[in-house]
Design a protein that fits this description.
The protein is an all-alpha fold and 212 residues long. The chain contains eight helices and no strands. Helices cover 58% and strands 0% of the residues.
Length: 212
């Protein structure tokens, strides 16, 4: 049975615990995934590093060829868009683990001050100091009643007495002053454009005698 492609495995199980990886894949795939995971974390910690620095770092660390590390780098660059979306969740999980380890170490030393700081940071990271959001009680929301009105006083505007009569008088006044407009149909202009704008002269201008 052919081995699965490393990139396909990494898309699904890049951060899967080693114990679970060994149950799903053979030793070669597991070792490659763990190496890619290590390389990815190094890239997050060294975002300005060049490809050559990356290769030098891991070719020596894992005693493999440069070509193998370049292949790993190609996998990481293909996965980066998807991994970046999960980076925040991963770092939150990683920070939780670090805080819990710090708390346990401080507890063994009976260092109450460090225990308190670790517990406070853990609470803030996981927002346990905030109350759980409650669902909006839509069934208790009363619909605002609206009533149509012509009274401008509801907007704080002083009403004009006999406004309807004043509107009617103004309409009659301006209607009487309006000049009647006759609509006419469009007609083609009877222009001899060939004589008006001739360009047969050397300088491109028409002779004045050709206008009439």
């Amino acid at each position: 049975m052919p081995l699965p492609k490393t990139i396909d495995v990494c898309r699904v199980d890049l951060f899967t615990p080693l114990a679970e990886l060994t149950e799903k894949y053979d030793a070669i795939i597991c070792a490659r995934v763990m190496r890619v995971r290590d390389e990815y974390q190094w890239m997050l910690a060294n975002p300005d590093a060049r490809d050559r620095q990356f290769v030098e770092e891991f070719a020596g660390r894992y005693s493999v060829s440069d070509q193998a590390i370049y292949a790993d780098l190609a996998i990481i660059k293909q996965l980066m868009p998807a991994l970046s979306a999960a980076t925040r969740d991963f770092h939150r999980w990683k920070t939780n683990q670090m805080l819990l380890e710090t708390y346990q170490m401080a507890r063994k030393r009976k260092d109450a001050k460090t225990m308190e700081r670790a517990a406070t940071s853990y609470g803030k990271l996981n927002r346990v100091d905030l109350e759980d959001e409650q669902a909006m009680p839509f069934d208790l929301i009363v619909v605002q009643p609206f009533t149509a009105t012509q009274d401008p006083s509801v907007l704080g505007i002083k009403p004009i007495p006999n406004i309807d009569e004043k509107i009617s008088r103004m309409i009659e006044k301006y209607r009487a002053e309006t000049i009647d407009i006759d609509d006419v149909e469009y007609e083609e202009a009877d222009l001899e454009e060939g004589d008006l704008w001739r360009d047969d002269e050397p300088d491109g201008t028409a002779q004045e005698g050709n206008i009439l």
